[in-house]
Write a structure and sequence with these properties.
- The protein has 13 helices and twelve strands.
- The chain is α+β, with helices and mostly antiparallel strands.
- The strands form two sheets. The protein has a six-stranded mixed beta sheet with strand order 2-1-6-5-4-3.
């Protein structure tokens, strides 16, 4: 691999600093260069104009070894993953807009988020650590993690996760699956254990009232994308329920909580936004009052 990198560098010195040459010259991108070479993408990245969201060596080091081994054994899968980090044309940092979804060379979209409060920009929730490394045929933005393509939308994520089967039952009973397909969307998804913590008479009562169940479930969704990198302490985003009730986000050294629920798994990337798994069910105040007293419209 070292010989390949040296060869590419010598070629780059002769022909100019295209995207591949620029990556070769970057001492934190050697793994990406090796994988681009193995996947047979060098010529393609030299012959067009592209924007690369480039994972650093440290980013690749965080990929589970089993996943990396699998990719190294399947050149097509490796090529598709790498193409998912590349967008046709030149997209500089000044072109990035919140919730824009550029199409990648793999054919599916990325999601850009601009979080102004902490000056963090993300791509599929991964922090963009360095922007606008200019090359002759495009631009490179370095990122701190490898971006794995989502396997489906938020409803697909709920359906495929055994820990979210009670949530799936509730969503089906309320008939609101389509609401969880809004784009963009953040879903705070209570696990089965979270539902089990509820008083079971209250849960039965809630499941028997379609309107209040709908409101409760929509209280778990926010109509924009809140990745972990963009959450901030004492943030009060509006939920997707009909009253646009506020959630209370807390961020500290112990993690992230939403109202009284702890985020136990963050940044499950989906095609229409992001899902975070939480350990308690979120109940709007008016629904909680109804559950306790039976009073309410």
């Amino acid at each position: 691999m070292l010989k390949i990198a040296v060869t590419l560098l010598l070629v780059g010195q002769c022909l100019g600093a295209d995207l591949v040459d620029t990556l070769v010259a970057e001492n934190t991108a050697s793994t990406l260069v090796q994988l681009v070479t193995k996947a047979g993408l060098v010529s393609a990245l030299k012959s067009g104009t592209f924007t690369i969201f480039a994972p650093t060596d440290a980013a690749f080091a965080r990929v589970p070894s089993s996943t990396l081994t699998s990719l190294l054994g399947d050149n097509q899968a490796l090529a598709n993953l790498l193409k998912y980090h590349v967008v046709a044309g030149t997209v500089r940092s000044t072109d990035l807009k919140n919730e824009m979804t550029p199409t990648t060379l793999a054919g599916s979209s990325l999601r850009v988020n601009i979080y102004t409060h902490n000056k963090v920009n993300t791509i599929n929730g991964k922090t963009i650590t360095e922007v606008d490394r200019q090359a002759d045929n495009g631009v490179i933005h370095f990122i701190d993690d490898v971006i794995m393509p989502p396997s489906g939308n938020a409803v697909d994520a709920v359906k495929s996760d055994p820990e979210l089967s009670t949530l799936l039952t509730a969503v089906s009973a309320a008939g609101i699956a389509k609401e969880f397909l809004a784009n963009p969307e953040t879903v705070f998804a209570p696990t089965n254990a979270a539902f089990a913590k509820l008083d079971q008479d209250s849960l039965k009562k809630l499941l028997g009232d379609a309107g209040r169940l709908r409101e409760t479930l929509e209280y778990h969704a926010v109509p924009h994308t809140l990745y972990a990198a963009g959450l901030w302490n004492h943030e009060f985003p509006k939920s997707s329920d009909s009253h646009e009730d506020r959630l209370h986000i807390r961020v500290n050294s112990e993690g992230v909580t939403v109202n009284n629920a702890k985020v136990i798994e963050a940044d499950i990337n989906v095609s229409n936004g992001v899902v975070h798994k939480i350990d308690s069910v979120l109940i709007p105040i008016r629904v909680a009052f109804w559950l306790r007293s039976g009073i309410g419209k």
